[in-house]
Design a protein that fits this description.
289 residues, alpha+beta, Phosphorylase Kinase, domain 1, Aminoglycoside 3'-phosphotransferase, Chain: A, domain 2, five-stranded antiparallel beta sheet, two-stranded antiparallel sheet, 19% strand, globular
Length: 289
Amino acid sequence: MDAATSARLAAAVGRDVAGARSLGGQHGVAHYRLELADGTVAFAKVRNPLDHGNGAAGFAAEAAGLRWLAAAEAVPVPSVFGCDADCLITEWVDADAPRPDAASQFGRDLAVLHLAGSTQFGAPWPGVIAGLELPNDPGDTWPEWYWTNRVLPYTRLARDAGTLTKADVAQIESARARSLELAGPAEPPSRIHGDCWSGNVLWSGGRGWLIDPAAHGGHRETDLAMLALFGTPYLDRIMGAYQEVAPLADGWRNRVPLHQLHPLLVHVCLFGESYRDAALHAARLVLAA
């Protein structure tokens, strides 16, 4: 790490940086394991100063989301040590291998987090997911809010990039009316992670920790559908423990493709046609449900 970056981090965290090890990075952001002068170990995300994307907004959104999730005192999340336009510095969490008992505890913790609730669908801060803008406009009813703030923006972004055809867009938009019927019984807004795929669950000390949130008031089934999307270890244990604390409404399995449509469209925007078929398949399952 160069002296300028070290100085930027020290200013943000309010402590000198004694050492740093590069951990690579993603979405135009570098990752580091820091050793602070007082002996604290921390994790840092650093924006390239030449980057003019959503890095700064993303740090602010992530910090706000971590603090909001932590306030529920449910699922453990890393503490925020410092945040500014250039970087985000959080508590370092040593990772373990996932275990069945930890998965069960995570399911219970996640249910408590969701039950902590939110005053509205959306969030009072501008959202970012994987470097893309994430609309967080407030709403009172989930199906319309989800379609307006989660499905349509990424459908249009992928269309404008030429990844989705007009026919693809029409198929996704045709699922809108069905989604309003499929959404299930109305529920109050839950306090959700918002990007709860397996890579954002860090196993440590017999608990599942949540990292890299796109936190907002949403539908709790969204987090659960994300866990299923890319293969979370011991998902059956997570779901069983979750249901003991906060049983899901009947028909939740039929709604999984609806909740997965948004993250699949985000992947279409990020990675192109390799996720196009999966997103269209989810739309077809919504229509057929």
